[in-house]
Specification:
The protein is an alpha+beta fold and 495 residues long. It has three domains: 5-175, PAS domain (Beta-Lactamase, 2-Layer Sandwich); 237-330, Signal transduction histidine kinase, dimerisation/phosphotransfer (DHp) domain (Helix Hairpins), CATH 1.10.287; 339-494, Heat Shock Protein 90. 55% of the residues lie in helices and 16% in strands. It contains ten helices and 13 strands. The strands form three sheets. Strands 11-12-10-9-7-13 form a six-stranded mixed β-sheet, covered by helices on one side. A hairpin with a 3-residue loop joins β11 and β12. α6 packs antiparallel against α7 (299-330) and α8 packs parallel to α9 (380-397). The longest helix is centred in the N-terminal third of the chain and has 58 residues, at 5-62. It is rod-shaped and about 175 Å long.
C-alpha cells in the first residue's frame, strides 16, 4: 500500500474521472451510434423504396386502366407477375392498391393481411403515402413480431397515387451493431483505464517526489541543520517553493553565523573589558596596600603613588565613559538630535580643539576646506565628537614637527597624518572595540574611539573609511549623500 496519501488521492481522482468519462461516453455512444445507424438505414431503405416504386409505376403504366387488378388481362398479369417477382426477391415488401387491398403480403407474415388489421401508426403511414408523401414508421413491429423499420413510397400513375409500396426491415441488426460497438468501446475504455492508472501512478510519483524532498529539507531545518537544501531545479510552482526553502536555509545559516559572531564579539568584549580593568585595578590595589601597610613612607614616594593612583582612576573613568557612550550609540532607541547645521562649522570647531593637542608636538594643521556652505542635518555635538576622535588619533600617532592634512569638499571630509601607518593585517580590526595598535602612543587609550566614531557616522548616514600604509601615514575619510549646493567653491588654505 502506498504511504503517500496525496498519491492515493490523485490515483483515485484519475480513476473516478475516467470511469465517469467511460460511462458518459458509453451512454452517448449508444444513443448517437444507434441514431446514426438508423439514419443510414433509412436513407438506404428510402433509396430502395423509391427505385422499386418507380419500377412498379412503369409496370402499371404498361397495363390498360381497369386491368391492373387480380383479374386483369395480359398486361395486368404482367404487373402482378412483376409484383410477385419483387416480393419473392424482397420478402419484406408489401404492395397495396388504391382500394387499400394487399396485392402481396410477402413472406414475412405468411398470410394475406386485411387493411383493417394494420395498427394505428401503420395506418397513418399508409395514409401519408397515398397523400404522396414518403415517410417512415416503426408501427409494424407488432405484426412482424420484432422491432421493424418500415418506409412507405407512393406508386404513381401520372400524377395520381394508385398504390403504396411498403418496405420493411428488422431493427434487430441495428441493436446488434450498437451492442457490438459498445463492447468495443468498453474494451477500449478498460485498456485506457489500465493505461491511465499506470500513467497516474507515474504522475503521482513525479508530483509527490518534490513534496517529499521539500518535507525532508524542512524537517532537517527544524532540527537545526541549516545546510540542508532541496536540490530541486524546476520551472514551476514547486521550483519556486523549493527556491524559497533554499533561500530560507541560506538566511538561517547566515543568521546562525551572525549569532556566533555576535556571541564571539560579546565574549571578546567581556574579555577585553576584564583585561582593561585588571591592570588599573591591580595598580590601585598594589599602591593602596603599600600605603596601608606602611611599606612606602617617604613623602616623595607617597606623592608619586598618589599621582599614579589618580592617573589609573582617570583612565578607569575614561573607559567607563567610553563604554557607556558606545552602548548608547549602539542602541537604536538612543535619540540623536537632528537639526540643520553647516558641516564647515562643525569641522572648524573640532579643529580648534585639535590645535591645542597639536601644539604640544609642534604639528601643523594644513586645511583645504570648501568655503561654500555645505548644509547637513544631524547632531552638532555628536559630529564634533566624531571628528575630534579622528583628529586626536591623528595627532597622537603623528611624529613631532610633522603636518596634519584636513580636506573638505561637498561630500567628503578627509584627515591624513604623516605617522608610521597601520600594518595591513591590522586594518580589518581598526574599528573593532578595544582594538589598540602596538605603539607606545596608544598605551593610555581605551580602544573604543574609532568604534564610537563609526557608530556616530552610521547614525548620520555617513560612510567612514580608513586607508593606511606603513611608513606613509593614515587617511580617514567621511562621505555622505548630499544635494550639490550652487555657487562658487573657493577654498581656505592655512598652514
Amino acid at each position: 500500500m502506498m504511504k503517500n496519501r496525496i498519491a492515493l488521492k490523485l490515483l483515485a481522482f484519475f480513476a473516478l474521472a475516467l470511469l465517469v468519462l467511460v460511462l458518459v461516453s458509453s451512454l452517448m455512444f449508444r444513443s448517437l451510434f444507434a441514431s446514426s445507424i438508423k439514419d443510414a438505414k433509412r436513407e438506404e431503405m428510402l433509396s430502395r423504396a423509391a427505385s422499386l416504386s418507380g419500377l412498379l409505376a412503369q409496370a402499371r403504366v404498361a397495363a390498360p386502366r381497369g386491368m391492373q387488378g387480380m383479374q386483369g388481362g395480359a398486361q395486368g398479369a404482367n404487373y402482378m407477375n412483376f409484383i410477385r417477382v419483387i416480393t419473392q426477391s424482397e420478402p419484406n415488401i408489401w404492395v397495396l392498391d388504391e382500394n387499400l387491398e394487399f396485392l402481396s403480403s410477402g413472406r414475412m407474415m405468411g398470410r394475406t393481411l386485411e387493411y383493417g388489421e394494420l395498427p394505428p401508426e401503420a395506418e397513418k403511414l399508409v395514409r401519408d403515402v397515398f397523400r404522396g408523401e414518403t415517410s417512415f414508421s416503426e408501427g409494424f413491429s407488432d405484426l412482424a413480431g420484432a422491432p421493424t423499420l418500415t418506409v412507405g413510397a407512393p406508386i404513381y400513375e401520372g400524377k395520381q397515387v394508385v398504390g403504396a409500396l411498403l418496405l420493411n426491415d428488422a431493427v434487430s441488426g441495428i441493436q446488434d451493431a450498437v451492442a457490438s460497438g459498445q463492447r468495443v468501446l468498453l474494451f477500449s475504455a478498460a485498456a485506457a483505464l489500465l493505461l491511465s492508472i499506470l500513467l497516474s501512478v507515474l504522475f503521482s510519483y513525479s508530483f509527490t517526489r518534490p513534496i517529499s524532498r521539500m518535507k525532508a529539507t524542512a524537517g532537517r531545518l527544524s532540527e537545526g541543520d541549516y545546510s540542508a537544501k532541496t536540490g530541486l531545479n524546476r520551472k514551476d510552482e514547486f521550483g519556486d517553493l523549493a527556491a524559497s526553502i533554499d533561500v530560507l536555509s541560506d538566511r538561517l545559516q547566515a543568521a546562525r553565523e551572525a549569532g556566533r559572531r555576535q556571541e564571539q564579539q560579546r565574549n571578546d568584549f567581556l574579555a577585553n573589558v576584564s583585561h582593561e580593568l585588571r591592570t588599573p585595578v591591580t595598580v590601585l590595589r598594589g599602591s593602596l596596600e603599600a600605603l596601608s601597610d606602611g611599606v612606602v613612607t617617604e613623602p616623595g614616594m607617597v606623592r608619586d603613588y598618589y599621582r599614579q593612583m589618580l592617573r589609573e582612576t582617570q583612565g578607569l573613568q575614561r573607559l567607563v565613559n567610553d563604554l557607556m557612550e558606545l552602548a548608547r550609540l549602539q542602541n537604536a532607541d538612543f535619540p540623536i538630535q537632528s537639526a540643520p547645521l553647516s558641516l564647515q562649522d562643525v569641522l572648524l570647531d573640532a579643529l580648534r580643539g585639535a590645535e591645542r593637542l597639536a601644539q604640544g608636538k609642534d604639528i601643523h594643521i594644513q586645511r583645504d576646506i570648501i568655503q561654500t556652505s555645505v548644509p547637513f542635518t544631524g547632531d552638532y555635538e555628536r559630529l564634533k565628537q566624531m571628528l575630534l576622535i579622528v583628529l586626536d588619533n591623528a595627532v597622537k600617532f603623528s611624529p613631532p614637527q610633522s603636518a596634519l592634512h584636513v580636506r573638505m569638499d561637498r561630500d567628503l571630509i578627509s584627515i591624513r597624518d604623516e605617522g608610521p601607518g597601520i600594518p595591513q593585517e591590522d586594518l580589518p580590526n581598526v574599528f573593532d572595540r578595544f582594538y589598540k595598535s602596538r605603539g607606545g602612543e596608544n598605551r593610555q587609550g581605551s580602544g573604543l574611539g574609532l568604534a564610537i566614531a563609526r557608530q556616530i557616522a552610521q547614525r548620520h548616514g555617513m560612510q567612514i573609511e580608513l586607508e593606511s600604509r606603513e611608513g606613509q601615514g593614515t587617511t580617514v575619510s567621511f562621505t555622505w549623500q548630499q544635494a550639490d549646493q550652487a555657487g562658487s567653491t573657493p577654498r581656505e588654505e592655512q598652514a
